[in-house]
Specification:
Growth Hormone, Chain: A, disordered N terminus, disordered C terminus, mainly alpha, single chain
């Protein structure tokens, strides 16, 4: 199927709207869930249980979830998952209204919501290239829109809305998120059906999961694309662990100022997502990915040496821009080159690597801050990011990207396969 790079199909509009509505609901719950937990306990370990429960599904079921998505109809997986999450949120909402809410219930809800997110996100990642005919330019434009609106909805609008709705009643933000999931399910249900992946249901699920993981580790380009977010998560979690304390003790920033710092990073992410396609066309996707990774490392280095809050805010905005562009270019390239029947497993394997790496970064940041100084985790994170950039530069070079695109789209015009030469009419 050949698609005009100037126009995305109508079905994408419904998918984009569904994910925007759902992301807004996610932002509401992201703020409300820990605040709800605080109304029940002040025990840090109990609060940590609720937070940790939301990360467990990717650690426990990431690759197996991808194998299941590769067996199932992806559109159905998405709308059934969101419908189930809408029903699920009615349980804690009722418990809050009846004053029987508890930490174990919140932890169970956080776990099941994240499990649903695993299936929805993996299915959406696998469905999008089918919807767009696996066209690289279309995928970059689509992912830029999805990433930008997701950042705006879940990062800017959702958390303040969650806090405001909580003031109206403990069940209100949960019901709002339930409505967002229900609307998303209805929109996804109206999307065009796509052929079911040609994966053999007779083969064992574990063997299919292993096949997806080995496909990533044996392909240097896909491995490079997976290593960057994995190593990046170690670095960014090391920074995030000490950022609030660093901001207060080294930069003299109060609580409101810290919120502005995070807003600067999110604003940079929006900018990065918006210019990702331009960078890919100008530099080539491989070179653009190397440049954005280097920008992230240099920005964290700037944050580590920042003498005041203004420099720190600029550094975080630049880092956010690099991250935003990376998170458009990397997934778009993966969606363009991975065979349809492996897409769910490859996507979930890459995501699982990133999720598994995150706790190491948190422990690293805390240990370095306790052993040395609050700036030490930031310098270590910058060094880790820059080292990762150098190691993966040849793995995701323009030459490898072009070769992968030629193998995937042998019938395409050679000029269209070179990301640096590709032109999109305005």
């Amino acid at each position: 199927m050949t698609l005009d790079s100037r126009n995305l199909p109508a079905g994408f509009g419904r998918l984009w709207t569904a994910q925007t509505v759902s992301s807004l609901g996610d932002g509401v719950t992201h703020a409300a869930l820990p605040l709800l937990a605080l109304t029940l306990t002040r025990d840090p370990m109990a609060l940590a249980v609720v937070t940790a429960a939301g990360t467990l599904p990717w650690l426990l079921f990431g690759v197996l979830g991808g194998a299941l998505v590769d067996r199932w109809d992806r559109r159905r997986t998405m709308w059934v998952t969101d419908a189930a999450r809408a029903v699920l949120l009615a349980v804690p909402a009722a418990a809050a209204a009846l004053d029987v809410l508890s930490i174990p219930l919140l932890a169970a809800v956080a776990f099941l919501l994240a499990l649903g997110g695993l299936f929805f996100d993996t299915a959406a990642t696998a469905y999008l290239p089918d919807l767009l005919g696996r066209d690289p330019a279309q995928l970059e434009r689509a992912n830029a829109r999805l990433r930008g609106t997701q950042t705006a909805a879940s990062g800017f609008a959702g958390p303040p809305a969650g806090s405001a709705l909580l003031a109206l009643g403990r069940s209100v933000p949960l019901l709002a998120d339930a409505v967002s999931f229900a609307l998303s399910a209805l929109l996804v249900r109206s999307l065009p059906a796509m052929p079911r992946p040609a994966a053999s249901a007779r083969e064992s699920l574990l063997r299919q999961a292993r096949a997806g993981a080995s496909y990533v580790f044996r392909d240097r380009l896909l491995l490079g694309l997976a290593l960057r977010p994995a190593v990046g998560n170690i670095a960014f979690l090391a920074v995030e662990t000490v950022l609030a304390l660093f901001s207060r003790e080294r930069l003299g920033i109060d609580t409101f100022g810290f919120g502005l710092l995070l807003t600067a990073e999110a604003a940079g992410g929006l900018l990065g997502a918006g210019i990702a396609s331009f960078l890919g066309r100008r530099l080539g996707t491989g070179t653009a990915l190397t440049c954005t990774a280097a920008i992230e490392g240099l920005a964290i280095l700037g944050l580590a040496s920042a003498p005041n809050a203004y420099v720190a805010g600029i550094a975080l905005a630049v880092c956010g821009a690099g991250m935003g562009a990376t998170m458009v270019l990397g997934p778009s390239l993966r969606q363009a080159i991975v065979p349809a029947h492996l897409m769910g497993r490859v996507a979930s394997t890459s995501r699982m690597l990133a999720m598994c790496a995150a706790p190491f970064g948190a422990f690293l940041g805390g240990w370095l801050a306790n052993t040395y100084d609050l700036r030490t985790p930031l310098y270590a994170a910058a060094g880790l990011l820059l080292t990762m950039t150098a190691v993966t530069a040849t793995m995701t070079s323009n030459r490898r990207v072009e070769a992968a695109l030629r193998n995937t789209h042998p019938e395409a015009d050679p000029a269209d396969q070179h990301p640096a030469k590709e032109t999109v009419p305005r």
